[in-house]
């Protein structure tokens, strides 16, 4: 595979959306740290050896709160802006035949919430929960790339159980990911990918509540242009909470309920090795949502690439 096709940064983006989901006391579900649409084209691969620094502004526009059957319960006006700085390193060290790396994401979240139905208006901003992935593995074999990684979210953001708006979610979370990217045909212009994300949660600080385990599957299909520097196509996801939230602090109205959502939209990626920069634009509209907020997600990615020189052949 040409180098241009592999120069991208797949990061487990920590989209921390505590905003309107705090209304779980009446309708919604406990939110996890990861959100569908966080990754897109070629998300089943790891970056090649080198250092990568990314600035990732993410905007989530929430315009509806859906009930367990998918009916609209309320139409809030919520804007969540997560400004994230991500550091990632892929070393030249091989473990089980895979390139080994690690990454850290530091998110600052700003949430603005207004809802006429509840006659409420509020704003919250601050450092959210930091994500650290000490184990990131990537393999390349023929037209296929594979990735497996483990990371966790630390409850570093402010969290007040009595507050409806918090920069942090107030609990530790383990995250396991596995996926693959496949380049179709001999020129390797067409590409498809799939990535699964599993979330395993601890109890919330100050609350007798443990969010249920969650699964997100993200997929993409794209084509490369401009001597492999550009990749354009569609990306989508499906999310499902695998079992209901637990604990004595769960509202009886929410007992046994699990939420879900889907999303799809266009994506454009461009890598300019001469500039050592990579760019990513992605928009996904959510649909078929149940028991959670619904809206759209817009992701902007700017990555500085400092590729490691290849090892000399023996």
What does this protein look like?
- With 314 residues, this protein is mostly beta strands.
- 1% of the residues lie in helices and 57% in strands.
- It has one helix and 14 strands, in the order H-E-E-E-E-E-E-E-E-E-E-E-E-E-E.
- The protein has one helix at residues 3-6; strands at 50-66, 72-74, 77-95, 98-115, 120-127, 130-141, 144-154, 173-184, 190-201, 214-225, 230-241, 260-272, 277-290, 293-307.
- The protein has a twelve-stranded antiparallel barrel.
- A hairpin with a 4-residue loop joins strand 10 and strand 11 (230-241).
- Mean pLDDT is 83; it is low at 9-27 and 112-122.
Content of β-strand: over 45%
Low-confidence stretches: 9-27, 112-122
Mean pLDDT: 83
Distance between the termini: 22 Å
What is the helix content? under 10%
What is the gyration radius calculated from CA atoms?
Answer: 19 Å
Q: What is the molecular shape?
A: globular
Look at the helices and sheets and give the structural class.
Answer: mainly beta
Biggest β-sheet: strands ordered side by side in the sheet = 1-3-4-6-7-8-9-10-11-12-13-14
Major sheet characteristics: 12 strands, antiparallel, barrel
Care to count the β-strands? 14
- SS element count, helices: 1
Along the chain, the helix and strand elements come as HEEEEEEEEEEEEEE
């Amino acid at each position: 595979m040409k180098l241009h096709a592999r120069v991208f940064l797949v990061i487990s983006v920590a989209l921390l959306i505590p905003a309107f989901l705090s209304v779980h006391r009446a309708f919604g579900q406990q939110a996890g740290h990861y959100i569908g649409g966080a990754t897109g084209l070629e998300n089943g691969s790891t970056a090649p050896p080198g250092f990568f620094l990314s600035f990732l502004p993410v905007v989530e526009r929430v315009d509806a709160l859906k009930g367990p059957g998918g009916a609209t319960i309320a139409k809030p006006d919520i804007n969540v802006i997560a400004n994230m700085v991500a550091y990632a390193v892929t070393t030249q060290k091989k473990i089980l035949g895979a390139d080994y790396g690690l990454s850290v994401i530091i998110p600052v979240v700003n949430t603005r919430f207004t809802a006429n139905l509840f006659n409420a208006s509020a704003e919250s901003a601050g450092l959210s929960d930091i994500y650290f992935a000490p184990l990131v593995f990537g393999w390349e074999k023929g037209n296929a790339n594979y990735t497996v990684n483990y990371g966790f979210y630390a409850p570093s953001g402010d969290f007040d159980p009595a507050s409806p708006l918090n920069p942090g979610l107030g609990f530790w979370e383990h995250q396991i990911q596995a996926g693959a990217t496949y380049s179709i045909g001999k020129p390797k212009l067409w590409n498809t990918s799939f990535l699964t994300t599993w979330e395993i949660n601890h109890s919330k600080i100050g609350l007798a509540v443990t969010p249920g385990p969650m699964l997100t599957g993200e997929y993409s299909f794209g084509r490369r242009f401009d001597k492999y520097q550009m990749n354009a196509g569609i990306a989508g996801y499906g999310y499902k909470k695998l079992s209901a939230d637990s604990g004595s602090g769960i509202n009886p109205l929410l007992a046994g309920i699990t939420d879900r959502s889907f999303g799809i939209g266009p994506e454009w990626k461009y890598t300019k090795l001469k500039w050592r920069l990579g760019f990513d634009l992605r928009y996904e509209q959510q649909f078929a949502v149940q028991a959670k907020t619904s809206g759209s997600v817009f992701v902007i990615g700017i990555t500085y690439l400092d590729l490691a020189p290849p090892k000399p052949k023996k």
